Amino acid sequence: MRAVILVGGLGTRLRPITYDIPKALVPIRNKPFMGYTLDFLREAGIEGAVLSLGYLPDQIQEYIGERDDLDGFTVDYAVEDEPLGTAGGIKNAERFLTDDGPIVVLNGDVLTGMNLRSAIERHEASDALATISLTSVEDPTAYGLVEVDHDMMVRRFIEKPSLDEVTTNLINAGVYVLEREVLDMIPEGCEVSIEREVFPRLQSRNRLYAHVSSSYWRDIGTPRSYLAASQDVLSGAVGLHEDFKYMDMAESVDMEKNVRILPPVSISSGCEISQLATVGGRVSLGKNCRIGEGALVEGSILLDGATVEAGAVVRGSIVGPGARVGQNAIVRGLSVLGARSVVGEGNVLDQGIRINPGVVLGPRSVSF
Ligand code: GTP
Asked: Which domains does the chain have, with CATH numbers?
């Protein structure tokens, strides 16, 4: 059985990080996100995947090309000239789906410990044309909800309900099993959404079923959820099969210096941490990051080559590749710095502010 991984979206909600890195490759614990997606499929015995690409496809192909550990897991690429939407992207992958039988489809931004095999078994035991995996969320008002009956047949979709319309807390987890007939329902070469166009048609024919998973699930589509997913992986909440290390630190860090490292942390190779700096509380540092004297980095993600200068504070935020936080500056409250941006000395960034790639904020120019 093969899968289609949908990774063609622009990832607008995760900008400015996704201006430079496609969402499928943003790192979690220094591993490109796609690595987790491939592990998930391989652990479920899926034999290969078609990557449905459109935005920054070269980076994704290069990442796969560099992996020499795929052991027979075959990967094909279906690249869109224009975004074809989630169903259009699956249709575009059809030429690579030559086996008989159902296919697995998943959004390339989902981190989950769900049991894919049991979703497939459930699908095969029913007369469903498609089976959607569902997961429960605490605040259902931000999502599209899916109402099911006792036989797990999908009854209704409720798009971003107000509190008094909430009848369920189950949402679409972005993992599907589809019969090939579903591909025949999707017109070729045009933009079609599987969630908004194909699934409602299947539901009206009583051929859409659900599989409910209570395992860990999160998508990484926003800065808040990306940061939360990174922290969950660091603290072992995801239940991944790979070895969990509470303190995952490259040897380059000189522990002889007077530095405070508070696990869980992940510190990649080439990082330099200066005297009296504190790094911890579910922090992930990419390669070659520099943390200056007395700086504090807490509950954050720093991508490759990021610098936090002396006395600066980065808390609960995301610092893009090569970005620099100047001396005594404060970056907190889910702020996001784009690649190579500079926050000059003494600035204070807060409340989810986002700085685009390459932008330079002069010293003490913002106190947000
Ligand atoms: P936002 O712009 O922030 O909403 O992100 P997104 O573009 O990734 O959209 P969304 O999160 O709704 O997409 C869910 C999944 O479908 C992601 O893995 C996307 O990469 C993928 N996707 C979205 N649109 C397309 C498309 O037009 N073509 C393909 N091939 N995949 C898509």
From this structure: 2-222 (3.90.550.10), 247-367 (2.160.10.10)
